[in-house]
Amino acid sequence: xxxxxxxxxxxxxxxxxxxxxxxxxxxxxxxxxxxxxxxxxxxxxxxxxxxxxxxxxxxxxxxxxxxxxxxxxxxxxxxxxxxxxxxxxxxxxxxxxxxxxxxxxxxxxxxxxxxxxxxxxxxxxxxxxxxxxxxxxxxxxxxxxxxxxxxxxxxxxxxxxxxxxxxxxxxxxxxxxxxxxxxxxxxxxxxxxxxxxxxxxxxxxxxxxxxxxxxxxxxxxxxxxxxxxxxxxxxxxxxxxxxxxxxxxxxxxxxxxxxxxxxxxxxxxxxxxxxxxxxxxxxxxxxxxxxxxxxxxxxxxxxxxxxxxxxxxxxxxxxxxxxxxxxxxxxxxxxxxxxxxxxxxxxxxxxxxxxxxxxxxxxxxxxxxxxxxxxxxxxxxxxxxxxxxxxxxxxxxxxxxxxxxxxxxxxxxxxxxxxxxxxxxxxxxxxxxxxxxxxxxxxxxxxxxxxxxxxxxxxxxxxxxxxxxxxxxxxxxxxxxxxxxxxxxxxxxxxxxxxxxxxxxxxxxxxxxxxxxxxxxxxxxxxxxxxxxxxxxxxxxxxxxxxxxxxxxxxxxxxxxxxx
Length: 564
Known about the structure:
By secondary structure, this protein is of the alpha/beta class. It has helices spanning about 20-30, 45-50, 65-70, 90-100, 120-130, 160-170, 205-215, 235-245, 295-320, 325-335, 345-375, 390-395, 400-410, 415-420, 425-435, 445-455, 485-500, 500-515, 535-564; strands at about 5-10, 35-40, 60, 80-85, 110-115, 135-140, 145-150, 155-160, 180-185, 190, 205, 220-225, 250, 255, 265-275, 400, 420-425, 440-445, 465, 470-475. The chain is elongated. Mean pLDDT is about 80; it is low at about 1-15 and about 55-65.
């Protein structure tokens, strides 16, 4: 059984109408009202309502402190019954009190009772509309007539009935009511196309198109409000314009936060890292590879192994060790030069020694030379980056800007992630990010990353890629003013877009248009063709050859000097 709560506080009741009771009962039944609140002065109207409304039990809630009564959460939907006054300031006071204590006003219906037949309904209904109550009707007790606005936010009124009011309430025809949306150049969510050859509609973006579809579906008027300078704005700059009633909503995506009003979160926005796609390795990099520690360890291990095995054989056959000679033989095998075996060995011992020198010396050195030759003549790339550990191993920093700070504080991040951040100015960040500079990584929402990576459409080998594992998840919402009268309709609209898959399509449809508008540029097309040799292709081979001639020249001069 539903409990009906009543609160009494301000006005004196004068008349009572059975027609009014029938109106209340019909609204109560058709709207499936959970709570009825009478906002009046005495108990007379309260008692008559309680004995005539088609409800079960009644509970009278009278407190000295009205904030405590209104502070109690009311079961929605709520029907509020109050009285009109000839004094507009008193009507403003009532609307202000209701506005203060009712947060989800789009779920409330208000019935205004006019006992005096002298109130300007248009002005009062507009007053409640501006206070965030979209569903308000006035009852003229003298004529037993209901009045409502002709359309959402209209200053004109028309006589109505409960049936007509309910039909208009659910129809959602906004009759050209303006929807003021903040636009700026922040692709892919919002941007302004200056050329009519690219787009006849200058206002584009994944979020802007959602608002335009909303206005089209509900017969409203989309009004674009330019942000100063058409630069990217922060959440707090958006809220300042919303609270000053300059706009109704902001045409961008924000992180869900309970500190301000926003749309229902229907889409999970993944926070991704855009990392280099395995950069090409500079050929001079291999000039130092033979001097790496593990190469010397491998060579030393081979020499020691050959010397130990050969010396062991020598010890078994001749009774003494000959380590020094076999160390020289091992080095000769690695250098692929001719060698002379020690004292005559048996056929089996000689075969074993030759196999040992061949496999550990000639073969390994030949494989190394072949591998080095392939590296010098073939374009090679670094290992693909798939994790934060790969970024750290490659010493790649993640460029970070001011707009990323708040989002990062919401979705958090590991210490391993934060140590890779490099904070830079927004302009510097934009230059590197828009050009897909592969020397850095970038972090942002996934829809933005898809937009930036769209530049690689004509590349055979991409420069950047999204790491497969997101680093965080956020709810993607739009910010609008508190208790926006169209909040319920807009939430229903984005819910339908999500269910039908159109929201995903709107996100991806703007990529081509944004690039053609000049906010990004396609990277030069890569064709399948034979490229001529460049200086870097022969520079490494020339350095190795020159180094060899220098070493041989030094050795030749040394032999001449020692010979004399």
